[in-house]
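Ticket 4471: requesting a sanity check on a complex prediction with 2,5-dideoxy-2,5-imino-D-mannitol. Repro inputs:
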Amino acid sequence: MEMLSILVIALSSCVLLHCHEAVEGSRYPETGNSECRILEQQQPYLPSFHFRPPQNWLNDPNGPMWYNGMYHLFYQYNPEGPLFGDKMVWAHSVSRDMIHWVDLDLALTPTEPFDMKSCWSGSITIVPGNIPMILYTGIDSNGVQVQNLAFPKNLSDPFLEQWEKSTRNPIMTPPQGVPGDFFRDPTTAWRDPGPDGKWNVIVGGLIKNEGMAILYQSEDFVSWTKAEHPLYSSPGTGMWECPDFFPVSLNSSNGVDTSVVDPSVKHVLKISSFSNVHDYYVLGSYAPKTSKYVPGNEYTGSSTDLRYDYGKFYASKTFFDQPKSRRILWGWANESDTMEDDLAKGWAGVQAIPREIWLHSSGKQLVQWPVEELNKLRGQHVQVLDEKLHSGSVFEVEGITASQADIEIEFELHSLEESAEVFDTTGTDPQQLCSDSNASVKGGVGPFGLLALATKELTEHTAIFFRIFKGSNGFVVLMCSDQRKSSLRDGLDKTPYGAFLEIDPQHEKIALRTLIDHSIVESFGGGGKTCISSRVYPKLAINSEARLFVFNNGTVDVAISSLNAWSMNTAQKNRPTQSYALLD
Ligand code: DQQ
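Returned structure tokens:
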């Protein structure tokens, strides 16, 4: 059995490389050649416009940056196979637009006593002299987590392909009280104001189940001293992985450089919770003089905390994209299938579409939106304007490739006062609410939304929908992504996801954008105020068999003010190292 799966994996990866070469710039699936059709059949879950290498295991994004005209993405990768490994490396790809990618040599591999058992996650800081410095976690030969430094071997190589590890490594070892296996994932460093401002970096850690962002400071980026207090910590929250710390503008959706501290910004601290595998964030103020951070909302690890994404999205990291003045967020969407499935597929893990991230004008939450470059992949387009979606109706959106699509839809609601279900949602877990009623459970206003990756008879579908409740403090919008009917296959994690969407449905339309890419469905509600990503593996609704529907199962009609749907072209990625034409 092993030999057979190895052969299938080897064949499909080889076809994969070839297929991406063959379909360069072409529309999916009409121009697919026969090899690509074989690939589709063998690999119906392989995403076409999301980033991942042709084979093996991928997890966290590491050290994303824009440098000298190129976007770099490093990521956790197991070159040995499709499961997480004990010799993890930093793989490396470059791009001009964060959509089409060229695969480079591995950037960091376990070679030295300070990283002999793995090169784990970390970040990049561009220091004066325009030098990108990697700070990463090494698992040393004793299995202890330490922080290390690496820099490009040749700054004039436009791809920065080779990296050198500092002879001063390790530059941080677990401080007193922090266990050797709970000290990891350094952030991009920020510099205090002034010409001689010191460098600051945080590392995830824990002391007696109190999760924390341990603060280190340095004059020269090489010698680091632990500050007296962590930047922030919260008892009972377990290990914090992959922290991220950055400013967001109070009065613009533009991004700002990581070291900016002035009254025009708030600071975001993102925490990846090892206990429940979600990315949470707090918004607060940072005082460089005292190195103190005071969040406006506490992080407790509960369902009321703010999250980047209420589905599968973890270990994320941002960077400041200076030429376009925006902050970009990368996050890992893990598989929801089994280890056996991953062995058979030969791969696991996808990077979610890079998202622009900024503070909402309310100052209360962040907003995310797929980078504008993604629109270049939009192909065949269908549009529906001013259509009534009657109570109990379902209609198919025809004319696009529903397994590989981008959909933007706006719903307009009337009769909220009379029709919304009366229900006080205070203290209610929205995920539980979504779990209590699926899309076929009739409501007052809603459920209405999309049925993605669906079969004709709807025996399989992923339902992304809204319900409106009338609570004691006004109307409440619930957004759900329900995977329970996503596949006729058993043994998959089909957990339904849900979150509230902070909009006023009496005065605002309900907007939904959904990106569908074979086994990943990313949904952005209310212009990116609530995001939910899911991984699904339909048995029948694959490739050209997949369909897309819009439905309304509420008792009142809903209006579609506009629906725009596009087939998405396949991104070029992971071509042989020799081929750099993409970057010209
Ligand atoms: N993944 C890395 C760690 C990090 C975890 C190892 C988060 O550095 O804490 O691959 O997914």
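Notes from triage: The helical segments are 2-22, 34-42, 339-345, 416-419, 430-436. Leaving this open until the requester confirms.
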